[in-house]
């Protein structure tokens, strides 16, 4: 059986209804705050992913630089100098003395200027 409703109970029910209404408004504000935090968190996660990828690329580049430095210390040539060496071995000048870069060496005679470009001291 349901209890009988008095007029005094009407005020309690009105307060109860107003309480639910207030609670609904607070819940709506809470949902808006949660959506805002969710949006900001998504931005942070995306930025973190970008930074992780950039970090990986920087580490790979650093590793390449360290390997190149070790190869230079061991007398190895950089990629660009190896390319120049290959052109020189095919009979072309790689020096720019008298604008000879890219011209054919006569009878494939050695050119000290080209050799200096390829094997000479590296200026940093």
Automatic annotation (TrEMBL):
Q: Which UniProt keywords apply?
A: Coiled coil, Cytoplasm, DNA replication, DNA replication inhibitor, Metal-binding, Zinc
Q: Which GO terms describe its biological process?
A: DNA replication; negative regulation of DNA replication
Domain of life per record: Bacteria
Instruction: List the GO molecular function terms.
Output: metal ion binding
Among Gene3D superfamilies, the record links this protein to: 1.20.5.340
Q: Which residues form a coiled coil?
A: 34-75
Family matches, as InterPro entries: YabA (IPR010377)
Q: What is this protein called?
A: Initiation-control protein
Source organism of the structure: Liquorilactobacillus mali KCTC 3596 = DSM 20444
